[in-house]
Amino acid sequence: MKKLELKISYTEYESESELSSIDQELLQKAREASDLAYAPYSNFYVGAALLLENGVVVSGNNQENVAYPSGLCAERVAIYAAGAQYPNVAIKTIAVTCKSKSFHVDEPLSPCGACRQAMSEYEMMHHSVIRTILAGETGKIRVMDSIADLLPFMFKAEQLKKA
Ligand code: THU
């Protein structure tokens, strides 16, 4: 028996102004997407903007439903839209942000597990790491260089083949 340790890494920025202008622009697109979210049940508005290798930006936001589980998170709305429209183009960066009607979000959004798995699929599919920029309304910004830093033990296609 042995106890192992796993190292993940991320970069923390004190504020948005420390980001490169390209990252700031992508985060701004995510903020604009969050404004258009359909979130009447949670009042929690999430926006995601993906920068593709070909320079195109694809956005998405959370889409809720009165049958709660039928709704979908912003990250998956955006990533599936990119997969549907640009199936062969790798995703370079995904910026995700959120705001609430009930309180002020002063820390970076932390994507749900299902979205991490979905993002990981596209990273593996394109053999190309995806950077993730996570922000709240204000406060620190977190940047991961790979989805593997967000979801180290993701379920991989090889595991399915060996089964
Ligand atoms: N939500 C997202 O869109 N992304 C996340 O990473 C976490 C949660 C949405 C789902 C739901 O519409 C609302 O936020 C509250 O959970």
Question: What does this 3D model show about the protein?
Answer:
- A hairpin with a 4-residue loop joins strand 2 and strand 3.
- The chain has one domain: 3-Layer(aba) Sandwich (Cytidine Deaminase, domain 2), CATH 3.40.140.10.
- Helix 2 packs parallel to helix 3.
- The chain has 4 helices and 6 strands.
- The chain has a 6-stranded mixed sheet.
- It is 28% helix and 22% strand.
- The longest helix is centred in the first third of the chain and has 15 residues.
- With 163 residues, it is an alpha+beta fold.
- Bound molecules: tetrahydrodeoxyuridine.
- Tetrahydrodeoxyuridine binds next to strand 2 and helix 2.
What is the structure about, briefly put?
28% of the residues lie in helices and 22% in strands.
How do the helices and strands line up, and which of them pair or pack?
Elements: E1 11-13, H1 21-35, E2 44-52, E3 57-61, H2 74-85, E4 91-100, H3 113-125, E5 131-135, E6 141-144, H4 157-162
Parallel strand pairs: 4-5
Antiparallel strand pairs: 1-6, 2-3, 2-4, 5-6
The structure holds tetrahydrodeoxyuridine.
Tetrahydrodeoxyuridine binds next to strand 2 and helix 2.
Q: Give helix and strand order, one letter per element, not per position.
A: EHEEHEHEEH
Helix count equals 4
As for the number of domains, it is 1
What is the radius of gyration?
Answer: 16 Å
- Class based on secondary structure composition and strand pairing: alpha+beta
Keywords:
single chain; 163 residues; alpha+beta; six-stranded mixed β-sheet; globular; binds tetrahydrodeoxyuridine
